[in-house]
Amino acid sequence: MSRLAVVCGGSRGIGQAVSVLLAQRGCRVAVVSRNVEAAQDTVACLRGADHVALSCDVSKEEEVRRTFESICQTSGNITYLVNAAGINRDSLLVRTRAEDMLSLLHTNLLGSMLTCRAALRSMLQAQAQAQAQGAAIVNIGSVVALKGNPGQCVYSASKAGLEGFTRSLAKEVASRNIRVNLLAPGFIHTDMTAGMKEEDVARSIPLRRFGKVEEVAQAVLFLLESPYITGQVLVVDGGLQLSM
Ligand code: NDP
C-alpha cells in the first residue's frame, strides 16, 4: 500500500504545498486543519485518490486523539507526519495578553507534541506488524527561533521549544528507525505574511525576496525522504539568518 502522510495545517500555505507535493510523490494524504471545508478544497486539488480531509484543532488533546484514530482506522498506519499548523500573534511582550501567549504555545508547541505522540503510536504499531516504511516527522519551526525578533517573543519561544522537542524526540525514537527533523523557514509568501510589505523586508534577505511555499515543500520532502538525517534543523530562508 502507498505511504500515508498526515499534514497538520494542510489546508493553506506551506502545509498545502507539502500536501500537493506528497500526493505527486504517490502518498495518500490526510489533510488536517480546523476548517474542514478548506481542507476539503486542498484534497480536491491533490493528484491521485484516497486522500482525506479532517477537522481538528491540534491544541486540543481529545480532538487529536480522535482524529488520528479515525485516520488510522480509515487509511492504515502513518508513514509521514508534517506539523505545519501554526499561528502568529505579533506584539511587543509588554502588550501581549496571557491568553494570546497560551494560544501561541498551545497551537505551535503543544499541538505538535500531541500530533507527534499520536502519530508515533501508529508508526510504532506499523513496526510491530513489520509494515514500517521509513517513518519520519518534520516539524515546522522558524528562523526567528534562532536569532530572535522584536514583537515575536512568544512566537519565537514556541518555535525554539519545538527545536528542543525535535532533537530529544529524534533521540527517543532513533532506535526504532523513526526520524524527526525541523525545518525553519524565513519569510514565505502565505496568509501569515500577507500583511507585510516584501520590498521593506527583502533588502535584509541576501536572496532579496520572500520564499515560495513550493520551495519550502521541496525541503520538507528532502527531510522526509533522507534516511540518514535525524534531529536536525534545516533553515530555508534565502540567507536571512546570515544577516540577522
Ligand atoms: P498559514 O496561516 O498560511 O496556514 C496555517 C495553517 O495552520 C492553516 O492550514 C490553518 O488552518 C492551520 N492551523 C492553524 N491553527 C491550527 C490549529 N489550532 N489546529 C489545526 N490547524 C491549525 O501559515 P503558513 O503556511 O505561513 O505557516 C505554516 C507554518 O510555518 C506555521 O507553523 C508557521 O509558524 C511557520 N512559519 C511560517 C513562515 C512564513 O513566513 N509564512 C515563516 C516561519 C515559520 P485552520 O485555520 O483552518 O485551522
UniProtKB/TrEMBL annotation:
Keyword Nucleus in annotation: no
Q: What pathway does the UniProt record associate with this protein? A: Lipid metabolism; fatty acid biosynthesis
What are the residue boundaries of the Ketoreductase domain, all occurrences included?
A: 3-186
**Name of a matching Pfam family:** adh_short_C2
Q: Which GO terms describe its biological process?
A: fatty acid biosynthetic process
Q: Which molecular-function annotations from GO does this UniProt entry contain?
A: oxidoreductase activity, acting on the CH-OH group of donors, NAD or NADP as acceptor; quinone binding
Q: Which UniProt keywords apply?
A: Fatty acid biosynthesis, Fatty acid metabolism, Lipid biosynthesis, Lipid metabolism, Oxidoreductase
Where, if anywhere, are coiled coils annotated?
none
Q: InterPro entries, from UniProt? A: KR_dom, NAD(P)-bd_dom_sf, Sc_DH/Rdtase_CS, SDR_fam
Give the similarity note.
Answer: Belongs to the short-chain dehydrogenases/reductases (SDR) family.
Q: From the Swiss-Prot or TrEMBL record, give the protein name.
A: 3-ketoacyl-[acyl-carrier-protein] reductase beta subunit
